[in-house]
Each structure stands twice: as C-alpha cells, then as structure tokens.
Amino acid sequence: MTQQQTEIDDRGHGFVKALGSIDALFIGFGAMIGFGWVVLTGEWLSGAGTLGAILAFAVGGIIMCFVGTVYSEMVAAMPHAGGEHNYLIRAMGPRVSLFGSWAITGGYISVVMFEAVAVPKTAVYLFPNLEQIKMWTIAGFDVYLTWALVGTVTAIIIAWINIRGVKLASLVQTFVVSFLIIVAFLLLGGGFVGGEAANAEPLFTGGAAGFIAVVAVVPFLFVGFDVIPQSAEEIKLPPAKIGKLVVVSVCMAIAFYIIIIGMTSLAMPASELAAHELVTADALATMFNSAIWGKLVIAGGLAGIITSWNAFLMGSSRLMWAMASAGMIPAWFGKLHPRYRTPVNSIIFIGVLSALAPFLGSAALGWIVDAGSPAIVIAYFLVSIGFLVLRKREPAMDRPLRIGGKGNGGMVIGVISAVLTLGLFVLYLPITPWSAQLAWQSWAMFGLWLAVGVFFMFRLPTGIKAGPTAENELLTKVKSLRKK
C-alpha cells in the first residue's frame, strides 16, 4: 500500500490528506490577499480618508471574524469537502443547501475570473509594450490579443497545477504567500523610514457614503477563509485545529490590509493619490526613493493574484464536486482524476471561464467584483442561520470545537453573524442613499448565475428533510429517478 493510499480520507471519497497546518493557513490567508490591495488602496484612501478606510476594514474584518467563528465550529463538526454544502443540507435541507452552495461557488468563480483579468493588467506595468493586436473595445477599454492571452495562459497553468494534486497547489501557495508577507514588512519599514505623518491627512472624508463604499468591498476582499473548510478532507489535522485556523487566517488578513492602507497613506499627500493608478507600488518607491521598490510591490501584486486564484480554484472545484456527488448538479462535475484524486472536470470548467474572462477587458474587473460580493454574503448569512438551527435542533451533535463556551455564547455569536451579514447584503440593494452602486452588468452576472442555481434547485426531488442523513436520502432518490 502506497503512502498516498494510506492517507485517503475516511469518508471514502478518494481525496488525499496532504495538507498540514501551515498549508491550510496559507490557503485561507492567501485567498484573502489578492490584487485589490495594489490597485484599490488609492480609492479607499480617497473615498474614506486614512482613518476612515482603516476603520472600514476593521469593521468589515470584525464582521468576517464573527462569520469565521461560526465557520470554525461548523468545519470542526463536519470536516468534509464542500464546506457550506454539508452545513446547509444538514441544517436546512437540500434546496437551501444547493442555493447557498451555488451562490458562494459563483462568488469564488468571480474571484478566479477577476484574477484572470488582473494578471495582464498588472503585467502591463512590468512590460509596457504588452498590448498588441487590438481586437475590440468594451466599456471604453481596448482589448488586445497579446494582453488577453497573458491571462488565458496563466489560467491554463493554474488549472494544470490544481489538476496535478492539492500538494503541488499548496506548495505553490506557501512559497508565494511567504513573498507577500515580505512585501508587507517592506511597506511597514518604508512607512517608518520615508513616510510622513502629515500625508495621512485627511483622516476622514466622504462621510457615511464614503465609509460604506469601502465596507461594501470588504466581503469580496476577505472571502477566502472559507476555502479552508472546502479542503477539509485534504487536511491532516484534528477537526478542532482546522476550525481555529479559519479565525487565525481572518485576523492575519485584517492585519495585512491595515498595514497596507496605513503605510501607503504616509507616502504622499492625499491630493496626489489620483495621479497614481498603482498607489501602493508608487508609495514604496517614493518612501525608498527608487522605482525598483515599486516594481517589487507589483511583483507582490502578481503573487497575490496567484495565491487568491489558486485558493479559490481549489475551493470552487470542491464545492462543485460536493454538489455533483450529492446529485444536485450534473454528475460530470463530480469526477475525480484517477491518478491525482482531484475534481478534474470542475477544475476544467472553472479554468475555461477564467481563460475567457480576459477577453472582456479591464472593465470586467469592477463588474466581476460587484457581481461576486452579494453572492458571497448570501452564503455567509445562510451558514449563520444554519449554525443557529443546528445549535437548537441538535444540541448533542458532536462539536470538537464549540464556540462561545457551554452556555448561550455561541448562539449570541451566531445571531450577530446573521444580523451583520444580512446588513451587508442590504448595502448592495439600491434602496438607500448609502447603498453601493452596482453596474447593470454586475446585476446581470449575479442574476444569471443565481437563475441557473434556482433551476437546479427546483429540479431536486421533494420530501427530503434536513438532518445527518439528508445527503444519502437525496442521492438515493436522484439515482432512482435517473434510472427511470
């Protein structure tokens, strides 16, 4: 018997337990540190001011901490691939499980597509002559063949790495996240060496609307800690420790973003921010008085793209595999590679979407961010409700990690998580003067994805109640219907 065979997961699904604590932690943390900190920091500072932006990320981070705490108990109790799928089917049944799982899968895929567009956008700063052979113009942005192919080729490579196995993907993740951490420390050092406190003024700007606009992007930027539960069957750690890693990864991301915002604000006056497209890169170059340091930050941005892209491809493919294995979506998505034991067809499907995304041009970056964020928040809200349901209906359920102690502390945390995530979702609806303004293209992407999920949802057989046997009952019914 080979080492790989001895580490096959105990549910018989065929995943290989290859991830240690650092691997799992860096998957979650790396997923949350994509490309946004390179291109969007200037917008955050201009929109809310230095302290306003930091507080917005602190508030958003606290919300994610409550959600992450809920997830920590759920993954410890149900350490199976597919995360939300398992929690929701046990708490609220197959249809809610499919809706929530499909929503967050769409959110994950939106991040993957975002990064596929961000790669060539970043590469232009390193290779100014990259844009050759104009194809078309979308929303005012010219799309060039050579530019788009950079994203497409990268999509193919990352899909190939993920098909080859979770261990190879995690090795890439660990190496690149380590580089990201070095870049963060360089910015911290640059702030002390070449920063000026006066540049941080104004501390607040934009009022409530500016603050809310920054808070609204936090779910998209912090989504990723929940990739750890997606890969739970591939982590060779006790369930309780897996749960704790979820919260640790969120705290690391909060610290990273606050350092980036704070140190960038010290580099130049607020009046100069609009003249810099990559403010974070230009900030480090200014503080150390050398363009080389700016190039290093751009390399860090590329590193962030890879870590986020890699992690979300892992997470979304496991979710699609879980839904397919339960008979919720076509069985084709549930195939594991015969040698590498990875959900090969799901990876190929998501890889194709990401390979096509660069051909939409730079305009797609904003559309994709705004389309994915509300879908992610929907799933967080449903998981919070599912947590409360299971605490009430199954008090004796085995919980290796019980948050909030033996009393009602856990219920309080769950209620807070549900209320906060519902409030976040309301921010996306155009019903208040402070609502986030989403483009119609974003609503179209969001609506189309959810419409497909609703289609699959109403195709599920009825009469299956929530509970620990719900998935087996669903699969039995689906198989009997397929034979007819």
From TrEMBL:
Signal peptide: none annotated. It is a multi-pass membrane protein. PANTHER family: AMINO ACID TRANSPORTER-RELATED, MEMBRANE PROTEIN. This is APC family permease. The chain crosses the membrane at residues 21-40, 52-75, 96-118, 138-161, 168-192, 204-225, 245-270, 290-313, 344-365, 371-390, 411-431, 437-458. It holds the Pfam family AA_permease_2. It comes from the Bacteria. It is found in: Cell membrane. Keywords: Cell membrane, Membrane, Transmembrane, Transmembrane helix.
